[in-house]
Design brief:
With 186 residues, this protein is an alpha+beta fold. The protein has two domains: 3-109, Orthogonal Bundle (Peroxidase, domain 1); 113-185, Glutaredoxin (3-Layer(aba) Sandwich), CATH 3.40.30. Helices cover 65% and strands 13% of the residues. The protein contains eight helices and four strands, in the order ααααααβαβββα. The protein has a four-stranded mixed β-sheet, sandwiched between helices. The longest helix has 23 residues, at 3-25. The radius of gyration is 19 Å and the shape is globular. The two termini are 35 Å apart.
Length: 186
């Protein structure tokens, strides 16, 4: 892991742990999970929001005011909004993607779940997600929550990351392996 990514993860872990503890004490884990899902969707869909979080052009005050104005419109609860405002005031809003990932992991652990990152060449149907979750549950011994992404360059197949394990059944990986084998032969 690169040093900046490591620093961002460390910063995000501290904020995530604190926010999770507050939500757990308030019996508000469901609300926190809803906030995390909303934040993740907004961060993925809005280039302006990503720019606000990551760009050093915006001052602490501008980030704080923007988060204060946007949080109610997004339906984010006060605990999460206050954490984001604190991060903005400390110039740490750039760690938002890592915060989302850390919170997802903490919530999943509290629910007895494990998250699996699945990248496919085409969007998976709900039935396919359910079937994959059942297969992974047998392997992991816990309920598996699947987070999906699409990467058309895979051509076909899946890349599944479950904890520290990664399974790559993509056509792209197989073609690359075949190409390497051919290079070794001739």
């Amino acid at each position: 892991m690169s040093e900046p990514a490591s620093i961002s993860s460390g910063i995000a872990a501290r904020y995530a742990t604190a926010l999770f503890a507050i939500a757990k004490d308030a019996n508000a884990l469901a609300a926190l999970e809803s906030d995390v899902n909303t934040l993740d969707a907004v961060y993925a869909e809005s280039a302006d929001f990503r720019s606000l979080a990551a760009s050093p052009i915006y001052s602490r005050e501008a980030q704080d005011h923007a988060v204060a104005a946007l949080a109610p419109k997004m339906g984010i609860g006060a605990m999460t909004a206050n954490t984001l405002r604190l991060m903005a005031s400390k110039r740490r809003l750039y760690a938002l993607p890592q915060l989302i990932a850390q919170l997802r992991a903490l919530i999943a652990e509290a629910k007895g779940e494990i998250s699996a990152e699945v990248v496919s060449a085409q969007p998976l149907s709900d039935a396919q997600k359910q079937q994959l979750a059942e297969v992974l549950k047998v392997s992991a011994g816990k309920d598996v929550k699947i987070n999906t992404a699409v990467d058309e360059s895979l051509i076909g197949g899946l890349i599944v990351k479950l904890g520290s394990k990664m399974i790559d059944t993509s056509v792209k990986a197989r073609l690359n392996a075949l190409q390497n084998t051919m290079k070794e032969v001739g």
